[in-house]
Write a structure and sequence with these properties.
Layout lengths: L1 H13 L6 H13 L5 H12 L9 H28 L15 H18 L8 H19 L7 H19 L5 H21 L4 H22 L1
Helix pairs in contact: 2-8, 3-4, 4-5, 5-6, 6-7, 6-9, 7-8, 7-9
Length: about 230
């Protein structure tokens, strides 16, 4: 029954009108800028701007090095691994267009996210919220990889789902209200998900499930850590 319904959803998606060229270009730019691998770096930068007192024990040079390290471990290495898989002919495209091509990248990303969580437990000179954030994105790769066997769950949706709930939980953690930030990230989450509908073959199931997975994994990580 599930497979029949999913096939019907795919047929519905295929009958949707093609979007204007300029809209597809904008959607591609949004998809690149808010690629899920960039989300941890954006979150870290946001924390340095909104909660600078949490980094008081780090010199400016050390903070710059920490920013580079987050990007290096959560974006560069996973992306470079995908590039190597493509060059070695293990996958056909660096854009991971099929479910089969996403399996190994999921495992690689899972390892790097786990390592970032493991390291974050021992850092006393950065926000404690990073512990449950890294745990949350690590958790999200597990159901993401499992559900990938049944349908092409949206990685972008998982990423923005993590980011949105993390910012909400951070406000709760510090007992502060950042209404503008919450509004912006909510709007961005909607824009990113809409962009994936425009430039990819994702269905409603793929995108909405991705949002739910990202959100729930952050909530679970917050509950575990705090």
């Amino acid at each position: 029954m599930f497979l029949v319904r999913y096939s019907f959803m795919q047929q519905q998606e295929s009958t949707l009108p093609t979007q204007p060229f300029y809209l597809r270009i904008i959607a591609k730019i949004v998809s690149y800028l808010f690629h899920p691998l960039f989300i941890p770096t954006y979150i870290f930068l946001w924390l340095t701007l909104r909660f600078p007192f949490e980094f008081a024990g780090i010199t400016s040079q050390g903070l710059l090095l920490r920013k580079v390290s987050v990007f290096w471990m959560t974006a560069f290495f996973p992306a470079f691994s995908v590039f190597l898989l493509w060059r070695l002919k293990f996958i056909n495209s660096i854009f991971l267009k099929t479910q089969k091509e996403r399996i190994i990248p999921y495992i690689i990303t899972m390892i790097f996210y786990w390592w970032m969580w493991y390291l974050s437990r021992n850092f006393t000179d950065q926000p404690g919220v990073l512990i449950f954030f890294f745990m949350g994105i690590f958790f999200a790769t597990i159901p993401g990889m499992m559900l990938n066997n049944f349908f092409k769950i949206s990685m972008h949706a998982i990423g923005v789902g993590n980011a949105l709930v993390f910012i909400l939980l951070t406000c709760f953690f510090y007992q502060t209200y950042l209404g503008v930030d919450i509004a912006i990230v909510t709007m961005l989450a909607g824009i990113v998900c809409t962009a994936r509908f425009i430039v990819s073959d994702h269905t409603n199931l793929d995108v909405y499930t991705g949002l739910i997975v990202g959100a729930l994994c952050q909530l679970i990580a917050y509950w575990v850590v705090t």
